[in-house]
Predict the 3D structure of the following.
Amino acid sequence: MSSVLKTPAGSAGISELPFASYAQIIRMLVPPAERISFYDVRGNALWINDGVDEPEFRMHVELVIARARQSTAPHGPTLAFDHDDSAHVFPVRNNAGAVVGAVGIACRNLANGARYRSAEAVERIIAPVMNILGHAWPVTAESAPMASAPREAAGTRQAAVAASQLQASMPVPALLRKTLSVATDLIDCAFGGVILPDRPFTLSLGVSPDESDLAITAAIDNVREHVLKWMKVRNEPLVANSAGRGQLPHKLLVVPLRDASKRPVALLMLFRSAKARDFAGVDVDELTQLAARIPTEALAALAPPEPPVIASVVKLPPAAPAVAAPPVVKPQAAPVAKPQVAQKPAVPLPPARPSVAAQPAAMAPKPAPAPVKPAAPRVTVADAPRIVVPTTASAATNTISMDERVRSALREGSFDLYAQRIAPMGNTPESPRFEVLVRMRDAGKLHGPTSFFAAAESSRLLPDLDCWVIGELLRTLRKRAVTVRASSLEFSINLAGQSLATDQFAEFIVAEVCRTAIPAGLLVFEISERTALEHEDEMGLLSARLRDVGCRIALDNCRSGLGTLDPANRWPVSRVKIDGSLIRNIGVSSRSESQVRAVAQLAADRGIETVAECVENERIHEKLLNMGIDFAQGFHFAKPQPLSTLFG
């Protein structure tokens, strides 16, 4: 599949290049290449074989072009940027050595040590094509070398009036918050934030009532790494008005805040809705003018301290030189000194998947607790429980309760995702569909949901577990985005009632979906019939938000017969899954058979898909064919398998 994107302004002549032909040549030279893309000198996508302009990859393109344009040698070596060990970006140079564009190549499913994982190897292979492309590329105004002098901020009279509200005598946090307030109002933005390059500090301010605190935090975290990379290369304002087919819901403007030595110590970020007007040069000038009002003395306070944290240990009184304990407690013997081991950051931790349980709740101190591994920070649901129970290394596994094991598994990421195929009935070809299932690894064993679900529910850990499943699934699919889109792989995720009743859970899902390159229509969220009826208000909110971003809703474990159609009519349900208790009794109970048949008929009349669960033999399969069921799921078709096996 090929796609010619909308030609950016100023790139009309470039669009006449036969990019499809160049892509075919590159694919012959690099057979594993699944995604080939061409960009102009500003980083705008000109042609992509699958038609999807991924925001993250595009940020890498802009960084590579910026690096190449800053090179002093007109015919210097071609620069390449490795992404995920198998994606590369190569700048295109014309006869004069000026950078005129870039080519992106993504190879998927490469074995470790494969030849095409090396950017240098790919660069040597495609060098003839790059030379030909550089000769054929039309010269544009942007192709001229970049001026080394920084742009002077012109500003506006309105910005000067607004800047007068910033008082140098304000405390630094208050001054930054006031700057955000003035900037978002002056430049008409939905929200803004301030981040520090060298420390995990984020200050955010929301203006639009449509943006929740969770969505604002997710939006800032989504671009944080890429913005920091940009500033390291260019150290100038960044404007991102196009995210590619609406994959990111915001437009971005970033201006660095510099200290007296012109070193960027903070980044001032403003966000607009994707439907709002583009950021223009006057917006950059106004924000730069506001940033200049912040005194350099205040910005110096944001810079990381010169001496390391160890210097504070040197200043401790001699009475307690090596014990980080309150002064009233004197070190005596090994029982007091041993907890000190937990404070040494030099011990490397084994890699683990990010945990949803980001911070433990406050607990009463216990004697000699064992070290608790810090969980990776991530966006979490604000009201979900965050209780972490410390365990001793010498405790036997069989003495630990199941709820403590679930908490430990959430901390360590000791869950695995599995997928079970949802098969179409009959011979009608359909895109592959799968239901996502979760397994827990504990003491060398793999536990199914029946082993830990009740404990997780009684401890109110299901919101944490649902967040982990959603985040881990989308991270996995993001690495295989090209395969998922090309094959239209569809995935269904189960949601618990506790999650629906958790504040901001719907916004968490929306934020996670929006930050990936996966089409939202390939994600289906399953809520049981009973859960939907018990949480009607939350179900209405969730279904509306998911519909807004393009996701779909399925009613799971439907066993009410014709009563199932009431919730199906109340909310935008696109699929009904008939409970296995009814399916297993087909051929045994005439009542079950009539209920299944009635649901199938009425759902078909309303355009709702039907899925039969727990189909375990050919006899039931044949009966379902005669009832008009659309899809079936069960061991008769496929057993659950690790999610990773779907991609080879």
About this structure: The mean pLDDT is 75. The chain has three domains: 3-143, 157-302, 416-437+460-647. The two ends are 22 Å apart (CA to CA).
